[in-house]
Amino acid sequence: MQGFETIINSIIKLGIAMLVGFLCIKTGYITKEQNNGLSKVIVRVTLPILIITSLTSLEFDTQKLKNSIYVLLVSIVAVAFLFAVGTVTSKISKMDKSRAIMHRCMTCFGNVVFMAFPLIQALYGAEGLLYAAIYELANDTCLWTLGVYQMKSIEEKEKSFMGSIKNLVNPGTIAFVVAFVMMAFGLKFSGIFGEVMTGIGSTTTYLSMFFIGGTLALVDFKHIYKRVWLFVLTAVKMVIIPIILMFVLKPFNLGEMVTAVVVLQAAMPASTILVILGMEYDGDVLYCAEGVFITHLLGLLTLPFVYYLMSVI
User: Fold this and answer.
1) Reported confidence tier of residue 46, pLDDT bands at 50, 70, 90
2) 295: which of 60, 167, 216, 276 is 20 to 30 A away, CA to CA?
3) 185: helix, strand or coil
4) Strand residues in the chain grouped as ranges (E)
5) 270 strand-pairing partners
6) C-alpha torsion 111→304→19→172, nearest 10
7) Among candidate residues 153, 295, 204, 293, the one with its CA nearest the CA of residue 17
8) What is the pTM of this model?
9) Looking at residue 161, what is its pLDDT?
């Protein structure tokens, strides 16, 4: 039960940090532009440093390499399964095209960095973060290819698909490659420089939660309770599919950590970046923003529940 206490404590801490960000935006103490600037600091500076310092602290061996390959393969399957379920539920609900695409993407693409990395690192340390980063690679590859391809209109799809591939080269993926090379050669930051880099990377956790809270504060949630399919999305994406993955992965004996990381990543709330993409490609932004709000709010309850189920199944 120690692991369950860890996730409860982690969720409470993350929730408090989100609340601080939420209140800062709601009261006008921090502006939307300043909050958006914070996201750039996280994505371009603190997160890449966190990935490099955490992964290079690992003693890489054959087993971790095997686990990494397993995680990559299983992650691709999990993301594909999430997308398929999103497609089915959007058809059942008879949504219009714009809303259906956003619903599909929200089901498929979770907040696998800002929310997942801090939580998984708290539960499983640097090795867990390694596997979480690999899941992110699978998630981002599908997001910037299949996801963007879906959002673009038919006549612009070809151009969008090729252009979106460039987005795969970002600070996070570059940091992952750099960390892998450093691990292969046994290199790591040391001394005062290493301490500073580790300290900067460690700020990612609370900065990320602050940013999420600030982003959610911008959502008008007066009519959210009427969005029945958003609650269906939350139940399917964040509870039902993770449970299915638990049973599907169990016979393969991939190890507790590998299975847990994939399941928790699949159970993450909808990605906040989908709101930005929805605005750019004329998606149903209101529906998406409300979905991001609901999934993050309820995620504070569903993530501990999913983790508890993993401990008893």
Assistant:
1) very high
2) 167
3) coil
4) none
5) 110
6) -30
7) 204
8) 0.83
9) 53
